[in-house]
Amino acid sequence: MSPIRPSRIGALVANLAYDVGAYPWASRERHPARIHHAHPDHLMSARCIAQIKLSRILAANALNLMARMGLVVLFTGCATHGEKKIRMEVAPVTAARSPEFRQAMGAILGPNFIAGNQITTLANGDQIFPAMLQAIRGARKSVDFETYIFWDGEIARQFTAALCERARAGVKVNAILDAQGTGKMGLANLEAMHAAGIDVQKYHTLFSLDPRRYNNRTHRKLLIVDGNVGFIGGVGIADIWLGNASNEKQWRDNHYRLTGPIVAQLQGLFMDDWLKTKGSILQGPEYFPPVSRSGPYLAHAFRSSPRTGESNIELMYLLAIASARESLLIENAYFLPDEKTREALMHAAQRGVRVEIVMPGKHIDQKLVRLASKRHWPQLLKAGVKIYEYEPSMVHVKLMIVDGIFTSVGSANFDNRSIRLNDEANLDVLDRRFAAQQRRLFDQDRDRSQPATLNDAGKLTLGTPFHQLAGLAASEL
């Protein structure tokens, strides 16, 4: 075997990390029909290990990285037990514009599409946080709040103050905070919430006798106020989301304010994780009041929870890709689809669908994701898929638009962590007006991006040092 050039070491380690599910604490199945559990004996093949025969210093770092990955795989081995898996290609039978597609999506993913909703798009922190805080401060009966990231800082303290003030005023405030994602929450924020009477539940503490719980995080971002106003999207509570994405330190993201019957579905998503954490049911008119129609949009909100066998994010992705006839637009913070999803994207492009993908460029917070993603660019580009790297800052948007009529937004990334490990929540909308709104935002981001070429895809020489590649404990946001 020919020696491995140092310039390719980063790419090899990045892909090995994803092959064994080490980053970001995710399980990867290269051959899902044959490998059902991410056991290290199955995944750490001799071929992979042989590929990382490096110089003395680099080998030591690689072995350290592999040791980390082996431990992670032990934690992830049971995480996908009983999970629904698609083992065969989803045939492009029904178009997104057809009534059959709507019926199938509702039946397969859970709740049916419901009419009469108002959905307001909020772009970046300057629009998102004021709208959410205004809703909290106006609460009269209940506030239900779930998030992955809650980091101490200016915006976190504002949320803490608003939630605490409402709780002291007699409003029932319930919060689900992921134990891993809120590691930088700050003791003062947590103590203030407890003192105000907020019922705070930590989702899957980091110390558990059940290793499956450690790797299953709630990545959902939900806020429901009085059962009649809801928020869903990709934004966490941290200062990195402040501003209007006007410089490289301000993240680009979307969030959505909802009213109408759809809010009850959001409340159901929150209740799903409330049962998992608290073990009780929240009910009554303060949580499920009579709700009338408030807008023109047809939508449904669905959950994905692989640990309980619901890989609905993967089902949605594959059904939506197969339904595309004209255009498929994807914008996502962490783009590293598995083999069958890559094949679905390539087949869509080959049957004449315009497939465009916007993802982070050099400002991505998880460098390993970008490095591993690039390995698969050549096959996508050769099939006709257009890839763009967003240049101004970190783009954290999670958006899919199919044929200008179907749109999916929410918390889910385009990778194995969202598909196989995390609890996620997405909103699907069947409406040309809403899709056109999202298309304008997509076009703006694409126009501020650098198109990828086969030459770029071949450059796996990012010079990423091993101490960056070994940052495996950091999860995607």
- Based on CA atoms alone, the radius of gyration comes out at 22 Å
The chain-level structural class is alpha/beta
Strand order of the largest sheet: 4-3-2-5-6-7-1-8-16-14-13-9-11-12-17
Number of domains: 3
Bin the helical content: 25-40%
Q: What's the story with the biggest beta sheet?
A: 15 strands, mixed
Second rung of CATH, namely the architecture of the largest domain: 2-Layer Sandwich
In what range is the share of β-strand residues?
15-25%
How large is the count of helical segments? Answer: 18
What's the structural blueprint in terms of helices and strands?
Elements: H1 9-19, H2 40-43, H3 46-50, H4 56-76, H5 99-109, E1 114-123, H6 124-137, E2 142-147, H7 154-168, E3 172-178, H8 187-196, E4 199-203, H9 211-215, E5 222-225, E6 229-233, E7 254-259, H10 262-277, E8 297-304, H11 312-323, E9 327-332, E10 335-336, H12 339-350, E11 354-360, H13 367-374, H14 377-382, E12 386-390, E13 398-402, E14 406-410, E15 414-415, H15 416-420, E16 424-430, H16 432-447, E17 449-451, H17 454-457, H18 466-469
Parallel strand pairs: 2-3, 3-4, 9-11, 10-15, 11-12
Antiparallel strand pairs: 1-7, 1-8, 2-5, 5-6, 6-7, 8-16, 9-13, 12-17, 13-14, 14-16
Helix pairs in contact: 1-13, 5-11, 6-7, 7-8, 11-12
Describe the structure.
- This protein has 477 residues and is of the alpha/beta class.
- It folds into 3 domains: 6-76, no CATH class; 112-295, Endonuclease Chain A (Endonuclease, Chain A), CATH 3.30.870.10; 303-469, Endonuclease, Chain A.
- Helices cover 38% and strands 19% of the residues.
- The chain is built from 18 helices and 17 strands.
- It has a 15-stranded mixed sheet, with helices on both faces.
- α6 packs parallel to α7.
- The protein is globular and about 60 Å long.
